[in-house]
Amino acid sequence: MTPEHLYRLWRQEGGRITPQRRAVVETLAAAGGPRSAPELLETLQSAYPDLSADTVYRILDSCVRSGAAEVFHVPTRRADRYEWVDRPHHHCVCLGCGKVTCLPSCPVDQEREQRLLPAGFRTVRHEYQIFGYCGECQTMTAAPPAPADGEPADVSHTVPVGGSPTALADTSPVAPGPKADTAGVKSC
Length: 188
Known about the structure:
Helices cover 30% and strands 16% of the residues. By secondary structure, it is of the alpha+beta class. Helix 2 (19-30) packs across helix 3, helix 2 packs across helix 4 (53-65) and helix 3 packs across helix 4 (53-65).
């Protein structure tokens, strides 16, 4: 989605395009990766000294509701991260340094996912995040050990099975296995 497309949506809903809204949207869209509300506020504060954190969060929430941005939680960061949606994509998140890497494609078998959902449930979108430790953090610190063969890996989301949400595994962080093929992987 482009900022202009978002402005059209907001206008159709009766919203105004204020200079502050335009500044937050265009800064996030141009960021090239995830940013927190405090980071955006710091970037814009000199040009908009009266801009408040509350206003930035409200604008970001409007972006998320309109489908122009995603919000995701990085456990090692104090603030949620927001990213402009130029295409649907998913993330690997380092629990050590907070680095976010975009996956080149969706690793979820969408047919299987659909079979696991409650009857009549219509998916609008889904989010997929893998939490672990990047190569640099693994060499700098002692990351928690990887699960033994046959043990479940860390899964920080729930999947409805038989109509009720069921956690697939514990949520303790685990170190990734051997270095993955990073061809086509883009740093957010």
